[in-house]
Specification:
This protein is α/β, with parallel strands linked by helices. It is built from 11 helices and 11 strands. Strands 3-2-1-4-11-10-5-6-9-7-8 form an 11-stranded mixed β-sheet, with helices on both faces.
């Protein structure tokens, strides 16, 4: 789905390991390819210096000055309290004021989440906004939620994650009736810790296509479309997966370089290997949406290339046009209607 040209998205030009060049390049690519309007927020002088070397004729690109930057390793609470002129704070405020439709950043994840929750706020009825990410599977794709926003969770939180993950899988991935699995240490209902045992009972009675517990092997098997877990577990799964993908690529390259026959075989299988690499490339999926907030926010990997920023803007546009936040609000209200005013 290509976002409408009326969509207006703010990009944190100072966020990420390779800012401001990479975020700006990704924003320019998105503006050119999708026709969306982009607002670059950050140190104006640095942004202009990079843009002056680019061809932006005919593109809708605006710059909003933000004099401060929150570093990737800064203490979150201290940074958001002291740096009210940061690119993250000003970008999120633009969302709050309705001047942009969504926010994309590869900056300090904790600072982005905390600022979104403080400035924009959570959807009524959502106790904990959650980070979701798309992972490739043997059959297609799956949504893993939460991947780092909430380390300590209660059963109610995971039930909300399941609802939000199902909406993501249905509306963005096009899966009509997403199969929901609960990450645990065994398939049987009685397996797991106190949290997963309690959540299993809740999800079994929920208005979801709950298919039971998921084990580590199920993440990439393709038998589940949404895998629910607390942020501690999800973040470990995500980081191990990223490391494994990199290790496989390095080891494969080493083996190919060892033997002449392997090099010859590589040329024969190069198209298949290129497709394989593309399926595993996180930049194809953009970033991780922060679900459960009033608005749209995509958080990208700090090492994201311009391609990832571009695709994060595309996905943000899809979220905006499909009004995912409104759909989440409606589903949460229906499920917890006795507790939502």
């Amino acid at each position: 789905m290509i976002p409408s040209k009326t969509v207006r998205i703010c990009i944190d030009a100072m966020g990420g390991d390779h800012a401001p060049g990479v975020p700006i390049d990704g924003a320019i690519q998105a503006a050119r390819e999708f026709g969306v309007s982009v607002v670059l927020v950050g140190i104006e002088e640095d942004i202009k210096k990079h843009i002056d070397a680019c061809d932006i004729r005919g593109l809708s690109i605006e710059i909003v000055h933000a004099p401060e930057v929150i570093g990737m390793d800064e203490d979150v609470l201290s940074a958001i309290r002291k740096k009210r002129g940061s690119s993250i704070r000003i970008g999120v405020t633009l969302v709050k004021e309705g001047k942009v439709d969504g926010f994309v950043s590869a900056g300090n994840t904790g600072a982005i989440m905390a600022t979104m929750k403080t400035v924009v706020g959570s959807i009524e009825g959502v106790d904990r906004p959650a980070l979701a990410t798309v992972v490739p599977t043997q059959k297609s794709h799956a949504v893993l939620i939460d991947v780092g926003a909430n380390v300590n969770c209660k059963p109610r939180h995971l039930e909300q994650f399941a609802i939000m993950g199902s909406i993501y899988a249905r509306e963005i991935l096009g899966i009509k009736n997403p199969r929901v699995g609960l990450m645990s240490v065994g398939e049987e209902e009685g397996k797991g810790n106190d949290l997963t045992k309690e959540v299993f009972k809740t999800l079994k009675d929920a208005d979801l296509n709950f298919v039971g517990n998921a084990e580590g092997r199920d993440v990439y098997a393709g038998n589940m479309d949404v895998i629910v877990c607390d942020g501690f577990t999800g973040n470990v799964i995500l980081k191990v997966s990223e490391s494994l993908i990199e290790a496989v690529q390095v080891l494969l390259r080493h083996e190919i370089e060892k033997h002449i026959l392997c090099k010859f075989g590589y040329f024969l299988t190069r198209p298949a290997l290129a497709t394989f690499k593309k399926r595993l490339d996180y930049s194809e999926y953009g970033g991780a949406p922060l679900l459960g907030i009033k608005g749209v926010c995509m958080i990208c990997h700090g090492r994201s290339p311009a391609k990832a920023i571009k695709n994060a803007i595309r996905v943000a546009g899809e979220f905006i046009e499909l009004r995912i936040d409104e759909r989440i609000r409606a589903e949460i209200e229906k499920t917890f209607k006795k507790e939502v005013r």
